[in-house]
Give the backbone structure.
Amino acid sequence: MIHVVRVTSRTERDPAGEDVLAEIRRTLDLPAIDRVRTARVYRLEGVSRAEAEQLAERLLAETVDQRWTLDAPVITDAARVVEVAYLPGVMNPEAASILKAAGDLDVHPAAVDASYEYAFYPRDGAEIDAAAVEEVLARLLLNPSVEQVVTREPDTLRIAGETGATQRIAIRSMDADGLRALSAEGLYLDDDEMAAIQEYFVEIDREPTDLELEALAQTWSEHCVHKTFKRELRVDGRKLAPMMRRLKRTSEQYDDLILSAFVDNSGVMDFYDGWAVCGKVETHNSPSAIEPYGGAMTGSGGVFRDILGTGRGAKVVASTDMFCFAPPDLPAEEIPPGALPPDYLLRQVVAGVRDYGNRMGIPTNNGSVHFHPDFRAKPTVIVGAYGLLPSALAAMGEPRDGDRILALGGRTGRDGIHGATFSSVQMTADTKAVNSQAVQIGNAVEEKRLLDAVLACRDAGLIRAITDCGAGGFSSAVGEMAERIGCYVELERAPRKYAGLTPWEVFLSESQERMVLAVAPEDVQAVLTVCATYNVEATDIGYFEPTGRLHVAWHGETIADLTMHFLHDGLPERILQATSPQPREAVAEPEPPTEGAAWAAVAAAVMAHPNVCSKEPIVRQYDHTVQGSSVLPPYGGEEGDAPGDAAIMTPLHGRPYGLVISHGLHPALNLLDPYWGSVWAAAEALANLVAVGGNVREASLIDNFIWPVPEDEQLASLSLAVDACVDVMHAVKRPFISGKDSLSSTYRYPDGRILHIPPVLCVSVFGRIPDVRKTVSSALRAAGSRLILVGARDAAGLGGSAYLDVLGADEGAGRVPRVDLALLPLTLDRMHAAIRDGHVLSCHDISEGGLLACATEMGIGGDFGVALDLGPLTAKGETTEQALFAETAGVFLVELAADVDPTALFGAGGAGGAGGAGGAIADDGDASSVAVHDRGDVTNDAVGDHAVGDHSVGEGDDQKIATHVPWVDVGRTLDDEVLRVANEGELIFEVPLATLQAEWERPMRSVFH
Amino acid sequence: MSNASNGRSSQMGPLACILKADGTNCEVETAHALEQAGARAVIVPMNRLRAGEVRLADHDMLVVAGGFSYGDDVAAGKVMAVELMSFLADEMADFVAAGKPVLGICNGFQVLVRTGLLPFGELGTMSATLTENQSGRFECRWVTMAPESDTRADFLQGLPSRLEMPMAHREGRFWADDETMARLEAEGLIALRYVDSNDEPTDVYPANPNGALHAIAGVCDPTGRIVGLMPHPERFVEDVRHPAWHRRPATSEPDGLVFLRAFTALA
């Protein structure tokens, strides 16, 4: 018997219902719906009527402002009422809390569930038909991957099932077609890989179990082993070193301050006073495309566990989020079959990141959102996390003979089966239906418990080694931890959410919120005690032993026995073939405006461009003040509307040490030019760090390559992006220390057409500074200040800019801006020194929207106006549109008090502001840029010795070129809150800042009303 | 301790019990802030109290820290309130009867309201609620509050007339029926109100960030020693936390520290 308690508000107000109504008004044409109310529905199985009443009164409803019913409707006056509940088998995180609280009240249900009812009220005289409700459900309320409309009372909430038996698969006698068919059943391995597996089992003279095949497929999946990055390449027939080797070899040359790079769950660098900081950035694109709320949540949960599982355990101190979507106003007919509407994706992804990070108590204080129509089939969802740990515990732990394997945290369910293999393949219209089991709803409080318990164990010295259970579940976690020793897993001991899982499912399940610890036998009891204090389930599931084998048993029966050597090194070698992309055909740029009003209109349109506009309505939903560590919030200043270029925080309470976090990405540029687009992303990330006072010399980089399935041209372009990262490392002499590739940004339409989702290189940077007081914000501080543009501009490169986009230019118009890698390091150093030494009032870096957006944002944030005079730029040959809208990264707009001499800060680079010096620098810039690129190509000939790349901006080379930093005086700040743009004193246009601010804020306010 | 904030406790100050349930997530910075304010602070997981390993009575003050206890499932702070009422009601009653001060911050405020301790000090009788923000969403922003001039929470007397702190919550809208609201006003149980740029209590978003009735940001019980507020004083005990500190050098102690110092002086 299931009793149903329904609860609704006694008052008129119902914010959840009003939110649904507002969404209906914004996105659907359903004028008949006048009002929406909501109710909570709680199902209680295995309790008496009296007990259900008791739970309603004392737990589920509050009579102060709510009323409730038992086994009866609670909203009776609406035209239509529908209930939306999770599908059976999708674990509802709320259920555990309800069971706990019921237990505290001495009521013990067998199972519970919680869901929502939506009630629709018509406008006077109108009728709400079933189709209208269907439309609201389909567009706004129901995600059929994880939810259903409840049309009849369920018989039971319990999930039952018989535990399936382990199967043996007769692989030894299969022919090629048989192997291919077997692979297609969920292994997703290629012919060579299947043959290698067959050969292994022929050699050891037995058939594999399903668990063994699944474990091999997981370990060898692109997601886990990064085959593409580890294999040798041929581009147009020329040999190239594996991309991973290029990155690592360069990284190793700049390892000052680095405690751990590319080996652990995150990269670790030294902080201060015996502490270290670590960073990891992950993608969760495929799950987010199917179930954006759950997908984003589990993305956050996964990257937080990466931090927790770093060294011997790190505390998560910050979270970042970078998203790419199709524009929110994409017409419905352009949404590919099987894909969700972009505004729904945007809101749900934001909600998922919000609910996980906020509940964990992790400040989300840096991020961005980018839009391009080609993300319509699949968004790019990037989440980062940063941690703090004692330096002495920064090295990855190694399990020893006899150490126990402890599984901590959530129970294992059927969720996320095949997540690792699934995320490595292209999407189609059927992806949603087939792979819904790969998605689950995160339970942030479960992970918070886990984090508290792990850190308590760490501080008590109880952890020998730790890793998270992410993609690949126990198979990946235990398999990797035991790689250099061997293990015996008593799998039947692993706690399960419900009966009916076969052993291989238990081993491969990607159920969230689990960690695996290696614990010395004498410390096991202490770990269990700590876990009990924090309500964390901890289970001993086996031990490490020096066999060099992965041995898994189920009630004593061996169900896997593979050598670690074959598991981790048995993947067949292969050489990848790629073809350089054809150069794009030149497309003419549109004609610029010719008179003031038209310029003002373009300025307003650029501020409202989705890649430029204010993201404050998103950021306000994230808690960035929790942990009491924020020094520069995402939006600061007097009115909370000054965008910060980077986050600054003090992770050690009471000490002045700053952790600075920034990032950069620009999918449109990557699409047009994989090399220079990637350089732009890195330069933007570094410039963001420096713009607030960060120091690149004490910073580390993290890469995220999110690329279409890497075949032919896509692989060649990926290789160029890697070259860009290598060249940037040589330029700034700092390493990438962590990274991730996600190579499945490809969508196949039902008719076979392919959509390549724009490639994204996201570069994240984190670094340390000794004193957070020596930083600045982007908000102007005074009227009468000088505005100095600092850094080498490639103003002719307007390709991919917001300006060209608002003019309606074809995508290929213009040329992608080239960052001068020879001048960049000196610019960053001089900027850092100027801020550190207190000479800079405020600073903002140039990015999307160019000088115009940069100056406007500084004015909005500081409540001062700006008068720009483009004379010094046009004198160097820049056109008005180039001067205003060029987006070269690595360039800063700096507010200096009128009596501060820029020459003292940046050198003679801009002396006089006009002609000569600047022009010469632009030429220098071009020359060195081209040279870097050419030499980047040359490296392609040098297999296994990508160190050739280190000549690209080699020692001495840059010393010779970069002796001064280009700068020009471009304006003054004003009391009058306007943006005034002139050329050599002649006014071009003037707009009130309020007008530009309204345009800047409008796009996201309309999505997040 | 997972962070480096402890070990700086003053040797003399009152001992604060910072109560932590699953999902409480502000306990570390709250401990740091209370230490700055002159207290000694210990973080006490709920299970240690339930098991009797730690006794509330051994502490001089109780702080229910912010966060999402038990995920705020069902309603914010509800599951933790049920747990407190089921296992620790007597200890809580004794603690309060001994005149020891109790502070609930954000989720802690929600918990205290759901136990009935706030606003009328009636353990087990819930008479007001903190419900969904009018915006329907979680929000994080800085707000300005003014202490009431005639509040029973007399430790607020002498504090600056404007207190700035960050708020970060989804369910912070103080709501009660008209009769209860009238009683709160009449009995001086309103401690802090959201004010606009003219220092006037306001219903207008975002100065009133959640639509709280009578602009209520914090209340107290009739003794003035049990206090709850939605904004976070512990997040503003250093001047560099303020979002405009780069523009506006601090001229006085951060408001969160001022508030916590005054509260700690009650113990």
Notes: The domain at 3-264 of chain B is CATH 3.40.50.880 (Rossmann fold).
